[in-house]
Write a structure and sequence with these properties.
Chain A: Its EC number is 2.7.13.3. The complex is a heterodimer of chains A (675) and B (153). By secondary structure, chain A is an alpha+beta fold. Chain A folds into 5 domains: 4-129, Four Helix Bundle (Hemerythrin (Met), subunit A), CATH 1.20.120; 147-292, Histidine kinase CheA-like, P2 response regulator-binding domain (Alpha-Beta Plaits, 2-Layer Sandwich); 302-355; 361-540, Heat Shock Protein 90 (2-Layer Sandwich), CATH 3.30.565.10; 545-674, CheA-289, Domain 4 (OB fold (Dihydrolipoamide Acetyltransferase, E2P)), CATH 2.40.50. Chain A has 25 helices and 22 strands. In chain A, strand 15 (577-579) and strand 16 form a beta hairpin. The termini of chain B are far apart. Chain B is 14% helix and 45% strand. Chain B is built from 4 helices and 11 strands, in the order αβββββαββββββαα. Classes of the chains: A alpha+beta (675), B mainly beta (153).
Chain lengths: 675, 153
């Protein structure tokens, strides 16, 4: 019984570990010699084993144990990774996942995995040591850990070249702080201030932000462009206290090129000399991987976050009042305190706002693995392309959207994309493209799943629907294409000629539609026979942060979503033309209609006759329009809120947001304005 | 005691155009002083806009214009009564809100029929208490979307 309270934690963590296993295995597949990845996999497997053994899920623990053995062998270079091993390990992870899901469903996580266990054991015993490989790996990791100025990008090289031509000196400075230095960031700041006075810092290693976070040992290297001599630079820098040594060397671009070519032989040199080379990119890759793994999380009930959010918003209102009061009282001390408080609460606001938001990547990240497997099962070649994985969605929506997406992807792979042979016949590339695209638009998040497969056959759908009794033949003839496509989401409908185990049990798409509609969204299907189909899911943002441009019209403030803005411009009155009694301007060769926000929203106030108009150019699809406003206030991240259940369907307003001063600003639905 | 209290309607009393109105107190979330209201374009004119009520964007209705009374500039005593009918959150602007009283059920009479008035539909009845006459509002009808549409025309 007492285990129950740990069960939730166990399930959540197991899911995370399995995801991490999948991620790293995919990475390993691309880069089979990277032992760091193997280590990560090993770690996840090991933790999983420990947890499941503690919780008494013996099968789970056994399988992980065997998997761990294989990984251990790989780690110790007793085995080299090949696609056979990977397949077996992938299968094992699949089994682990299904066991975990069994446990979630209230089962005991029992499953017959003896076949897999035997396979894993066989792999473990089959010794094939590849010593050469190991050596190469070791050397690689050695060189990449030494301290170097990283790859200079084109821009930086260009700056260095130009400065050399204009008689500036390029120096490479290595500053070592004293071991006793307490405020490293402060010293770094002082050094940088001096450097900025005498010249310009082109590059630093570690990066400036890392330095500011004290994310370094005691030394760092910068490339400086200045007119001062070596000694002058050195002396000036040494004026900062708590510095141990300063080494200044001439930095020449010739070195850079030489060292790049000489890299292969010069490995030992590289460790001692601080010379630019191109292994740093590898180091960066490794660093980013590490960061991902080591980021720690805690679980917080969403209700608590909501409460925190509301409380904080009240605080913001009071902050606004305090600012006003201090403004009128003109008491210096009060003003200082209030300013400080404003700053801090600003930071706090950002943190709280972002806390509830989760990048959709959390859902997307399991798809590469799934698509790989499905492609193998179906004998199809699939290129999965993911866009907008950083689109943030409310956590509650993220939790629900996974299953419908899985369904749609399975569907696209099974019914949509054809087998390589058929594709070749049709003159398409053998590899089918499956695109996942997520983006914000107005008050909604759109997720599009598009494939370049066979598309939906109208006739086939109608025949099926009629024979299944979903519609009558008469009805069918009056339906538009998109109405026909919607039919495939009626319950009891399956268009696949043969029922396969991937999809096509006829219970699929209507479930998808129901789930999405229960989230307050909808799903649209667009298709071109022979060209592919697009399933586009529209989801509301119950609580979502978007970037907006705040504009002012008379006394009223409006927020225009940044995602629909192309640019802002000032339009001269004489550039405005009349077309069919409508005001238009010529915007980069395109005729763009002008919309006066004042008129559309009936903003009270006099219509003034001005020479110049501040205009926000907005876009929807390939249509554009210019919104005339009075003033641009600026760009801001805001929380989208609905107008409530009472005010529904307000024209061209998609929601509201609460500004820093506690007032409400309306968010403009640009899509409605363009239509 | 408890049997008796069942026959009372605990009501909040507010003033509008020098008349006294009442609505059930359990609908009421809070009573607020006036604060900044953001106008929402394209809504009927009695919808004054929305305001930020502790982080919740709340629509505000001016009961004066809803009932077709003359507009009056807001004073120190003007209040917003925030109510929560049917999962909604709406604020009503009234001239003043000052009292919570128990109206005995037997004192409630149906609204007097007046020929040719359509406004009658949002009045549940009237209650006569000593020298006061309280008009009992039916909030659902006041807020109903059909009435919004017909008024917007």
């Amino acid at each position: 019984m007492e285990m129950n309270e740990y069960l939730d934690v166990f399930i959540e963590e197991s899911k995370e570990h399995i995801q991490s296993l999948n991620d790293h295995l995919l990475e390993l597949e691309k880069n089979p010699t990277n032992l760091d990845t193997v280590n990560e996999i090993f770690r996840s497997a090991h933790t999983l084993k420990g947890m499941s053994a503690t919780m008494g899920f013996q099968d789970l623990a056994d399988l992980t144990h065997k998997m761990e053995n294989v990984l251990d062998a790989v780690r110790n270079n007793k085995l080299s990774i090949d696609s056979n091993i990977l397949d077996v390990v992938f299968n094992a992870v699949d089994e682990l996942e299904s066991m975990v899901f069994d446990i979630i469903g209230g089962g005991e996580g029992k499953k017959d995995v003896s076949v897999l266990v035997n396979q894993l054991q066989a792999i473990e015993k089959g010794e094939s040591i590849n010593l050469e490989n190991k050596d190469a790996n070791n050397q690689e990791s050695k060189t990449s850990t030494s301290l170097q100025i990283g790859n200079l990008d084109q821009f930086e090289t260009a700056v260095l070249q130009q400065s050399a031509e204009k008689g500036f000196f390029n120096y490479q400075l290595t500053v070592t702080l004293q071991k006793t230095c307490l405020l490293k960031a402060a010293r770094v700041y002082m050094i940088f201030e001096i450097l900025e006075q005498i010249g310009e810092v082109i590059k630093s290693e570690p990066t400036v932000s890392e330095l500011e976070d004290e994310n370094f040992e005691f030394d760092f290297t910068v490339i400086l462009v200045t007119k001062d001599s070596v000694d002058e630079v050195k002396q000036k820098v040494l004026k900062v206290s708590e510095i141990d040594t300063v080494e200044v060397e001439e930095f020449s671009l010739d070195n850079l090129h030489n060292s790049e070519t000489a890299l292969v032989e010069a490995e030992t040199e590289l460790q001692n000399n601080v010379t630019p080379n191109n292994t740093t990119s590898k180091k960066e890759v490794k660093d980013s991987v590490k960061e991902q793994v080591t980021s720690k999380t805690i679980r917080v009930n969403i209700e608590r976050l909501d409460a925190l959010m509301n409380l904080f918003e009240e605080l913001v209102i009071d902050r606004g009042r305090l600012e006003q009061i201090s403004g009128t009282l003109r008491n210096n001390e009060l003003q200082e305190t209030v300013e400080r408080m404003s700053r801090i609460s600003g930071d706090l606001q950002n943190i709280i706002l972002n806390m509830r938001m989760v990048p959709i990547d959390q859902v997307f990240n399991r798809f590469p693995r799934m698509v790989r497997q499905l492609a193998k099962d179906l004998d199809k070649k699939i290129d999965l392309q993911i866009f907008g994985a950083d689109t943030e969605l409310d956590r509650t929506v993220i939790d629900e959207i996974g299953d419908p997406l899985v369904h749609l992807i399975r569907n696209a792979l099974d019914h949509g994309i054809e087998t390589p042979a058929i594709r070749k016949e049709k003159g398409k590339p053998e590899e089918g493209v499956l695109k996942l695209n997520a983006y914000h638009s107005g008050n909604h998040v759109f997720i599009e799943i598009s494939d370049d497969g066979a598309g939906i056959n109208r006739e086939k759908v109608i025949n099926k629907a009629v024979s299944n009794g979903v519609i009558t033949l008469d009805e069918a003839n009056t339906l538009t294409d998109s109405q026909v496509y919607q039919l495939i989401m009626e319950s009891g409908f399956s268009t696949a000629d043969q029922i396969s185990d991937i999809s096509g049990r006829g219970v699929g798409l209507d479930v998808v539609r129901n789930t999405i509609e229960s989230l307050g969204g909808n799903i649209m299907i667009d298709s071109n026979n022979g060209q592919g189909s697009v399933f586009s899911i529209q989801l509301p943002l119950t609580l979502s942060i978007i970037s907006v441009m705040l504009v002012e019209v008379q006394e009223e403030k409006f927020a225009i979503p940044l995602s629909s803005i192309i640019e802002t411009s000032i339009v001269n009155k004489k550039d405005i033309m009349q077309a069919h009694n409508k005001q238009v301007i010529d915007f980069r060769g395109k005729v763009v209609p002008l919309i006066s926000v004042k008129e559309v929203f009936n903003v009270p106030g006099e219509l003034t006759d001005e020479e110049y108009f501040s205009t926000v150019i907005i876009r929807q699809g390939d249509k554009m329009a210019g919104l005339i406003v009075d003033t641009f206030i600026g760009q801001q991240e805001v929380v989208l809120k609905s107008l409530g259940n009472y005010l529904t369907d307000v024209f061209a307003i998609s929601g509201a947001t609460i500004l820093g001063d506690g007032q409400v600003a309306l968010i403009v639905d640009t899509n409605a304005l363009i239509k | 005691m408890s049997e008796e209290s069942k026959q009372f309607l605990k009501s909040i009393v507010f003033q509008l155009n020098k008349e006294e109105y009442a609505m059930p107190v359990d609908l009421v979330g809070s009573i607020e002083r006036m604060m900044h209201i953001t106008r929402v374009p394209g809504t009927p004119n009695f919808v004054k806009g929305v305001l930020n009520l502790r982080g919740v964007v709340t629509p505000i209705i001016d009961l004066r214009s809803r009932f077709g009374f003359d507009d009056l500039s807001y004073t120190e005593s003007t209040r917003m009564i925030i109510i929560h009918p049917n999962n909604m959150e709406v604020g009503l602007i009234v001239d003043a809100a000052y009292d919570v009283i128990d109206i005995p059920n037997e004192k409630i009479e149906p609204a007097p029929e007046v020929v040719g008035t359509e406004r009658i539909e949002y009045i549940d009845g009237v209650a006569k208490l000593e020298d006061r006459l309280l008009i009992l509002l039916n909030i659902d009808k006041v807020l109903s979307h059909e009435s919004i549409k017909s008024l917007a025309k």
